[in-house]
From TrEMBL:
Gene3D superfamilies: Homeodomain-like (1.10.10.60). PANTHER family: MU-LIKE PROPHAGE FLUMU PROTEIN C. Residues 12-92 form the Mor transcription activator domain. InterPro entries: c-mor_Regulatory_Protein, Homeodomain-like_sf, Mor_transcription_activator, YraL-like. This is Mor transcription activator domain-containing protein.
Length: 96
């Protein structure tokens, strides 16, 4: 999130009204509900994790052990098992 100067985007009369409530402080204005993005959409983190998780399942299906995947991805064995299970469920839902 970046800051935008009020004088660059708001009419002066609106700025004066806002100053009556909060003078010289920071004010967060949330996005409209229809413009909200889910976690990771803007940064690409969501897509990156989905690709990583798909890769983990592919490697597991090729015979790589959970212990090796945990070391390779710096995750616990429990996390690797959870990812594999989730990816399998998602793949079944998409294909069926």
């Amino acid at each position: 999130m970046k800051y935008v100067k009020a004088y660059e985007v708001l009419p002066e009369d609106i700025i004066e009204v806002i100053q009556n409530y909060i003078d010289g402080e920071y004010l967060y204005i949330p996005r409209k509900t229809e413009n909200e993005k889910s976690w990771g959409e803007k940064s690409g983190a969501k897509k990156m994790l989905k690709e990583r998780n798909s890769q983990i399942l592919r490697k597991y299906n090729k015979g790589i052990k959970v212990t090796q995947l945990a070391k390779e991805y710096f995750l616990s064995e429990q996390s690797i098992r959870r990812i594999i299970s989730k990816e399998r469920r998602e793949n079944l839902l998409q294909s069926g």
